[in-house]
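WARN no homologs supplied; continuing
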Amino acid sequence: MATDMTGVKAKISLVCNFEAAKAIDLSIPKASFPVSKVFEFGFGDGAGEIDQIWWDRKELNASATEPVDVFGGITNCFGVVASFTKVKLILVLNRSDQALDGHVAGDAVITVGGVAALEFLGPFNTAGDAIDVPAGAPFLAFDPLGPGWTAAEATDILNIVNKDGVEKALYDIVIGGISN
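OK structure emitted
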């Protein structure tokens, strides 16, 4: 491990409950389908482990693009460059719908991925792939037991794009993985 950190933990809790109802004669029967699972990453560089984590809250001007350099272009919460060789967790939460930290609430859509040159493919299949994240919605991709997604000097840019031509976008981003 080549990390400045002496401990890192990440816990992702998925809790969903889906319900359907149908009025028939004198009753309204319901059916539900609960889905829940907790994923945890411990400290290290093996399966189910990470040794580096980076997060930030960002405001992005209208129509702006922010390239996130996962291999040496970001600084962690302790002021040390976070350089990932393997990324195991990406969370982007579009908070554009919230009046938070001086941000004016709106409905800006952001795009994650989609850069043509130096692209970090991560969980995407093909160069140029991207996903739109509406205001108030998250994008979450993680590899809880596998090796993670490879990042290197020439393939290390994850783009965040504000698709709104008028409003600023506000988002939180978290990246966890194995450091260089």
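The CA atoms of residues 20 and 26 lie 17 Å apart.
OK
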